[in-house]
Amino acid sequence: MNIKNKEINIKKRLKELSKEIQKHNHLYHNLDKPEITDSEYDKLIIENNNLEKKYPNLILEKSPNKLIGSKVKSKFEKIKHLSQMFSLGNAFNRDDIFEFIKKTNKFLNQPSNNKLNFLCEPKIDGLSLNLIFKNGKLISAATRGNGIEGENVTENIKNIKSIPLVISSNYPELIEIRGEIFIEKKDFEIINSSLREKEKFANPRNAAAGSLRQLDTSISHKRPLKFIAHGLGKTSKNYNSILDYYSDLKKWKIPTNNFLKFCNSIDEIIYHFNKINNKRSEIDYDIDGLVIKIDDFDLQNRLGYVGKNPRWAIALKFSAEKAYTIIEGIDFQVGRTGAITPVARLKPVNIGGVVVSNASLHNFDEINKKNINVLDTVEIERAGDVIPYVKKLIKKHDKLKKKILPPKICPVCKSITIRELDEAILRCSNKYECYSQKIGQIIHFISKKSLNIDGFGEKQAKQFFDLKLIKNYEDIFYIQKYKKQIISLDGWGELSFNKLIQSIERSKKITLEKFIYSLGIRFIGEINSEILAKAFENIDNMVSSVNKNNNLHEIDGLGPKAISSLNDFFSNKNNLQTVSNLKKILTIIKPELSNQSNYFTNKNIVFTGTLTNLSRDEAKYLVKKNGAKILSSVTKNTDYLIIGEKAGSKVNKAKLLGIKIIKEDEFLLKINQ
Description:
Elements: H1 3-30, H2 38-54, E1 78-80, E2 90-91, H3 94-107, E3 118-124, E4 127-134, E5 137-143, E6 149-151, E7 174-182, H4 185-193, H5 204-212, H6 217-222, E8 226-235, H7 242-251, E9 261-263, H8 266-279, E10 287-294, H9 297-303, E11 305-306, E12 309-310, E13 313-317, E14 321-334, E15 339-351, E16 354-360, H10 364-370, E17 377-382, E18 389-395, E19 417-419, E20 426-428, H11 435-446, H12 458-466, H13 483-487, H14 494-506, E21 509-511, H15 512-518, H16 526-536, H17 539-547, H18 560-570, H19 573-585, E22 587-589, E23 604-608, H20 616-625, E24 629-630, E25 640-643, H21 650-657, E26 660-663, H22 664-671
Parallel strand pairs: 2-13, 21-22, 23-24, 23-25, 25-26
Antiparallel strand pairs: 1-6, 3-9, 3-10, 4-5, 4-7, 7-8, 10-13, 11-12, 14-15, 14-17, 15-16, 15-20, 17-18, 19-20
Helix pairs in contact: 1-2, 15-16, 16-17
C-alpha cells in the first residue's frame, strides 16, 4: 500500500473514531445513557491518541482532543436545603401501628388510648423533590440527596405543569414545598416503547429519576413528569395543620393526593390501608404503602425526630412479596463484626420482578426453630429493599440429611468460633486478621452511609484488596500510585480510574458522625454515632475520653454494650493509629451547633423524678434542640439538675457538688424563653 492510500485509510479511521467518541460523550454526559463500558471507551481514546501521535499531519479539525466543553452542564450543582429532609420509618402490620401510636402518646405524656388525628395518603414510589419559593417565585428545585443538600434540578422541572414558577394570593415570604416526582404507568409504557431494549427503564420510578436527572434539560422537558406535594419544610407562615397547608397548595394550583383520608383510630387506618391496597391497580402511578402522619403541626414540632426519622409519621408498607422454592444448599457467611450467618442457596425464584437465589437464615437457632434443611421446600419473603429471608418451612424432603450444626471454626480463616453470653449469634474470634472481617470493614468504610465513594463498591474493594493494593482504610487515599496497574485491569481504563480518584477526593470532607460510623465499631450505628459526635464535638475529645475511661457512662442514650465496644476498639493500638492517620487525610467537620439561644444552650443537664407536664423523652428532646447535652448521672460536669416528683438520690449528690437544681415549672419557663 502506497503512502497516499495509507494516509487516506488513517484519515478515514480518525473520522470514524471522532464520530464514535463524540456519540459516546453525548450518551454519557448528556443523556446519562452509556452504551459501552468505560474500558471500551478508553480503548477508542487510546487508538485515536496513538494515531494522532504517529500522524500529526492528519489530525482532524474536529479531533476529540480539540473539542472543549459541552453545550450542557457537566454535572449538577449542590443546593443546601433550608431545613433537613428526613426519611420515614416503616411499619408492616397492625401491631407496628399500635406501637407507633403508643410511643407517640407516651412521648406527649398522654394516655396510650388517647385519640390522635392522622392524615393518611398513599406513598408514591417516585423521587423526592424540594421546592423553594421566595416572595411567590420559584427560586430552586433540588432532589433529596443526603437530606442536607441535593442536586440542583431547577431548570429540569420548568416544564412540569404541576409546578408553578410563580404562586399568587396569600403566599408566605419564604416556603419549602416538598413532594414526589413521578411518571404515570401509561406514560412509562410509552417512553419504554420508544427506547431500544438496552435503554429501557426497569420501572416507572427509574424512568422518573432518569428523566429528571438529565444534564441536557431539553430531554427532561420532553418527558411527562408529574409532581404531587406531600410535605412542608421551612416556612415564614405559621400553619396549624396539614389541612391548612394543603388548602393553600390548592389555591396555588399545586396538586396533593386525591386519596387522602383523616383517621383517628387504628381501625380507621387499617380500613383505609386495605382500601388503597385493593385500588392499587386502578391508581395511575406506583405506590408502595400508606403514609400516616399527625395532622397538627404543633404536635409535629413537639415530637420532632429520632435519628433520620420523624416521630410524627410512619409508612405502613404493603405486604411483602412471597414465593415457594427449594433450598439447594446452606453456606456460612462471615460479616465485618465476625458474625457468622447461615445463608440458604436457593433454586432461583422470581419475587416481585427480582430473581432471588440466596436468602438469609438469620442464625442457627432459627434453623432449629423452623426445622429447615437442604432440599426442603420453603417460603421466601422479600419486603421492599430488605434482604430476602426464609419465612417458614412448607414441605420436608423425605431424604434423611445431616443436621445443620454451628461451625466450631470460622469457615474463612479457620479460627475458633465463639458465642457471647445472651447472644444468638456465633462469631469468628479472629477480629483483626480474618479475611472476611477485614474486607467487610473496608466495604463498610466506603459505603453510602460512611464515606460514600462513588464507583467504589464491594467488587472494586475485593479486587484491590486481593491484589494487595489496599490493606486498610488509609491505603484507599493513596491508590493513585497504582494507576498503571489498575488501568490495565479488566473493566478499568483511564476514564474509570480518573472518576474513582475524583470520588475519593470528594469523600475527604466528612461530618464527625459519619466518620465515627465509618470506623465500623460494633454497636455504634448511625444514632450512636450522632450521640457521640454531639457529646464530644471532635474525634480527639472522644478518643481521649475513651482512653481515660471517662464520661462515657454519663452520655444519655449510650448503652453498656456500646461503651464496652468503644473501650475495646480504642484500646487497640492499630485502631488508634488508623484514626490518627485518617485525621491527617480527612477534613472532619464538627456537628452543627444549635442556632437556638436559650438558658440551657451549651449546658450539661441531668433529669430525675417524674415530670407531670411533659414526658421525660420530650423534655430531653427540648433541651437537645436548644443545644444542651444530656448526662445520665450527676457529676462535677453537670450544670443543672431538673427534678420532677419523687426525685431520688441525685438531688443529694447535686447539693453536695453545689449544682443548681431546677423544678419542672421553672424548667418549662426557661426552656420556652
